[in-house]
Structure formats: structure tokens, C-alpha cells
Write a structure and sequence with these properties.
Length: about 250
């Protein structure tokens, strides 16, 4: 690294912070968030009726899904009887193409905490692996994305895509999550379990707050297209320094 001095390109400020401090890097570092698919950008606001109390989880279940299910059963569902949590990302990682309904339920079971109530189990809607377009349509029609975040998240495309689709998100201040959500504007960054649950309930039940954050996400969190990201990459490699505004993907200004 010191001999050839390759140019590191980071996808978040968090990634800059965890980059090896004894490795060479430019000053300022080159931060270029991922581009977002055209299919998730530029959608219109949802009309009436408003989405029902339907939350979605669409990340790797190994990244604290069990923690989320505990919060859902103990702190969220008791305040909103009838709410649903739709869960994507369940896969058989040894047999990648197994996606039968029965297997999907079995795969969810390994993440459900012991002693989970029957009512809470009924509120969980597991989905087999879906095509990207199907997943985006499902997220778009959801009320809120719930994801606690994980220390390995250098960017978190799932939350970035949800924000571009206009879906408010509740996350924790972990890894790159504070860069994906504008706290109090397009979702909430919750510092503890109770705050996470309270904010989730607020977005699932308060139409005024949900509508405001839904429209703010559509306005502010569209991120970059891949063409814009490629242009910024070329500018950065040629010695420029693209300036980014905060958001799901940022914008070149």
C-alpha cells in the first residue's frame, strides 16, 4: 500500500473512520456512496388510503433480526395490536435456491427468541426470496422500515433504497446508519430500545408524522444514479473532490 499508493474509495464516512490508521489515504478522503437503481428513484408519493401498520425488515437476518423480534414482541406489538412485520432476506445459505414456503418459515424459526408468544408469531410475515422488483414494490407500500443496524454496515443499501422509495426508517446509531437516515426528517435514529420502539409506533400510527417523513424521504433521499456515481468516481480519480450533501446516497454539488 505504501509502495504503490492505490487510491482508496470509501462509500461512507464511517468506512473512513474504520480504515487502517497506518495505511495511506488521501486528505480529504474520497467518499463516493453507492448509486441506487433507477427503479427505486423518483417514485410519486403514496396517495390515499395510507399504508396500514405494516413494517418491513429487508436485510440479512444474521444482522440482529433476533434483537428486532424481541423489541417487536415486547415493546411495539402490545401498543399496536394487528400490526405486521414483513421479513425478507431469509435464505438457505447452503442451498441457495430453496425457497419453498415451508422452508421460509423454518428459516425464520431460528431467529425467533425462545418463548415467543402465539400472537407475536402471527404478526410475523416471512417471505421467500423475492426478485428485486417485487421486493421494492413491497417496501414502497410499507409504512416503515425497521433495522437496528450492524457494525459491518459500511453503507446499507437496504435502508438507502427504502429511503429513496419514501419509506421512513427507524435505525440505531451504529456504523453507517446515521448517514442513511436524516434523524427526525426521513426517519429516526434511536439511541436505545425504548426509543426505537416508541419511534416505530409513532410512524406506524401517526399519519401526520408518517406523511411528512414519507414526502421528505422522496424529496431528500433519492441519492445518486449509477451514472452520477460513475461521473463522481472519474472526477475523484482525476484529482477532483466531489462535495456530497448528506443523505441516502448524497448528491454531487
Amino acid at each position: 500500500m505504501w509502495l504503490y499508493r492505490p487510491l482508496p474509495v470509501f462509500v461512507s464516512r464511517y468506512q473512513v473512520g474504520v480504515y487502517g490508521r497506518f495505511l495511506p489515504k488521501p486528505d480529504p478522503p474520497l467518499v463516493l456512496p453507492f448509486g441506487l437503481p433507477d427503479a427505486v428513484r423518483g417514485r410519486p408519493p403514496l396517495g390515499m388510503p395510507r399504508p396500514p401498520p405494516r413494517a418491513v425488515f429487508a436485510s440479512n437476518p444474521m444482522r440482529d433480526l433476533t434483537w428486532l423480534l424481541e423489541i417487536w414482541e415486547r415493546r411495539i406489538l402490545p401498543r399496536i395490536p394487528g400490526a405486521e412485520l414483513h421479513i425478507y432476506g431469509l435464505r438457505d445459505y447452503e442451498h441457495r435456491y430453496a425457497d419453498r414456503w415451508e422452508e421460509t418459515h423454518e428459516r425464520l424459526g431460528q431467529f425467533v427468541p425462545d418463548g415467543y408468544s402465539a400472537e407475536a408469531l402471527r404478526s410475523l410475515i416471512p417471505h421467500p426470496p423475492a426478485r428485486r422488483e417485487e421486493l421494492w414494490d413491497s417496501v414502497y407500500s410499507s409504512r416503515v422500515m425497521l433495522y437496528g443496524g450492524h457494525r459491518v454496515e459500511a453503507f446499507c443499501l437496504a435502508v438507502a433504497e427504502a429511503q429513496a422509495l419514501g419509506v421512513p426508517a427507524v435505525v440505531r446509531p451504529i456504523a453507517a446508519m446515521p448517514e442513511r437516515v436524516r434523524d427526525g426528517i426521513t426517519g429516526f435514529i434511536a439511541s436505545d430500545d425504548e426509543a426505537f420502539a416508541r419511534r416505530a409506533v409513532e410512524l406506524l400510527t401517526d399519519d401526520v408524522v408518517w406523511r411528512r417523513q414519507h414526502e421528505a424521504a422522496l424529496s431528500l433521499q433519492q441519492g445518486w444514479s449509477w451514472d452520477e456515481m460513475a461521473a463522481a468516481f472519474e472526477a475523484g480519480v482525476m484529482g477532483g473532490s466531489p462535495q456530497l450533501s448528506p443523505g441516502a446516497g448524497g448528491r454531487m454539488v
